[in-house]
Amino acid sequence: MATELAEDGFDGAVSDGVKVVDFWAPWCGPCKMLGAILEKIEGDIAGLGAALCKVNVDEQPGLAVRFEVMSIPALLFFKNGELVKRLDGLQRPDDILAALKSLA
């Protein structure tokens, strides 16, 4: 189950290990589609040693601004607190897992 992140505590949440952070909004159709894909592959994400997190941009606009998220959905990949990769827009499961494997 993905962890919802807020501005307060975000840095601590991504500071250790690999985190895949889904920037989304409840009214966004492509976000819902990506959410279903992420749920389906969450076990694979965990198997690669990463954790899935979510940021609702309507509730956390400061994080969207901070990471220059101009359109959603957006997947940001953090390794030990550092933003190392991003995928903007709806993504295929294979592309998400390939991006994650490239961080190893």
CATH class descriptor: Alpha Beta
The CATH homologous superfamily corresponds to: Glutaredoxin
Structural class of the helices, strands and pairings? Answer: alpha/beta
**Radius of gyration of CA atoms, rounded to a whole number:** 12 Å
Number of strands: 5
Question: What would your notes on this structure say?
Answer:
The chain is of the alpha/beta class and 104 residues long. The chain has four helices and five strands; from the N terminus they run E-H-E-H-E-H-E-E-H. The chain has helices spanning 10-14, 29-47, 61-66, 93-101, and strands at 3-4, 18-24, 50-56, 74-79, 82-88. Strands 1-3-2-4-5 form a five-stranded mixed β-sheet. The chain is globular and about 30 Å long. The two termini are 22 Å apart. The model has no long low-confidence stretch (mean pLDDT 96).
